[in-house]
Amino acid sequence: MKLLSVLSMALVGSADAFAPAPLNVHRTAVAPVSMAAAEGELYIDQNRRNLMNLILVGSAAVTVGGLAVPYILFFVPPGSGGGSGGTPAKDALGNEIFAKEYLATKKAGDHSLAQGLKGDATYLIVKEDGTLQDYGLNAVCTHLGCVVPWSAANNKFMCPCHGSQYAPTGAVVRGPAPLPLALAHLDVDESGKVVFSTWSETDFRTEGKPWWI
Description:
It is built from 4 helices and 10 strands; from the N terminus they run αααβαβββββββββ. It has 213 residues and is of the alpha+beta class. Strands 1-10-9-4-3-2 form a 6-stranded antiparallel sheet, with no helix packed on it. Strands 5-6-7-8 form a 4-stranded antiparallel sheet, with no helix packed on it. The protein has helices spanning 2-17, 25-42, 46-74, 99-104; strands at 87-88, 111-115, 121-125, 135-138, 150-151, 156-158, 165-166, 172-174, 183-188, 194-198. β9 and β10 (194-198) form a beta hairpin. 32% of the residues lie in helices and 17% in strands.
């Protein structure tokens, strides 16, 4: 009996030796703490996020605006100047034209080009009394856009491109041009500067509405 008791105790001891070790309770308890810390590191304050978004949108708007403004201004007609609100007439060098100095160098009947509204070539016409005509004539042919020279010998404007001809007033006397030369008001402001402004009333040559506005 004593022998059986000894054998039983030996078997129990050997079984305890191969039993699995108890689980590490502390290891599983640490995991939630570690996840909470990681989430804290990834969290971004909402106010800070809004500020970052505003900075991003603002910088993009400044960039787009800087590119768009010059593009838009390209299509805006040159700003008018002078006390009368007109656009100053300029010579070939870009200098503003003053009536007194200009007329001192021109003879009666002279038709010379100047820079007019929107930068278009425009004729200044000196009348027989030595003063400027109160309108300028746009030199762009209404057929296909050639600049029409003045022919003093023929007393008319004659287009070299397709043969269109215009009277001294700019009215069509020979096609294929379909319309008269565009008119512009011409005035001399208080400083003596020659200025152009848009002709918006009835065209005295056709008794109709101006085709250029």
